[in-house]
Amino acid sequence: MPGFAAGGFAQPANSPYNYTNGTHPGGHAAHQGFIQSAINDTKMEDANEACIACHTHIPVKINWTHRYSLEFSCVPELELPPTHFDVKDWTLNGTYNITVYGWRNGTGDTSEEGWPGGYP
């Protein structure tokens, strides 16, 4: 049964379910890879693992690898007032691993380990 469109996601490969609709056709959702990985995993049907992670009270353990810092040069264009900037010299400095339990969507039991300066 197709059910309601999830909305906000591009239609994932290998899913018989509708992830798009006329209002929210998706394609640029930040969690598209998360949805596709859940679909590719055979532990549950379709993207249920990803849905459970954000939409239930079941705590989820997530192991993240983040960039420690992102640096760049930002110079205002000559036009005044400076509302546009020339951004260049991008540098990624190392990685940092963190484990998160639950999530900050009002579900689960959220705790963080080792985030530099506290969890954002």
Task: Pick out its properties.
2 domains; 3 strands; three-stranded antiparallel β-sheet; 120 residues; alpha+beta
Structure description:
The chain is of the alpha+beta class. It has two domains: 1-55, no CATH class; 57-120, no CATH class. Helix content is 14%, strand content 30%. It has two helices and three strands, in the order H-H-E-E-E. It has a three-stranded antiparallel beta sheet, with no helix packed on it. Helix 1 packs across helix 2 (48-55). The radius of gyration is 19 Å and the shape is extended. The model is unreliable at 104-120 (pLDDT under 50).
Q: Mean pLDDT score, rounded?
A: 75
Low-confidence parts: 104-120
The helix tally amounts to: 2
Would you report the number of β strands?
Answer: 3
User: What topology, given as strand order, has the largest sheet?
Assistant: 1-2-3
Total number of distinct structural domains: 2
Overall form: extended
Radius of gyration, in Å, reads: 19 Å
The amount of helix comes to 10-25%
Structural class: alpha+beta
**Helix and strand string, N-terminal first?**
HHEEE
> How widely separated are the two ends?
39 Å
Biggest sheet statistics: 3 strands, antiparallel
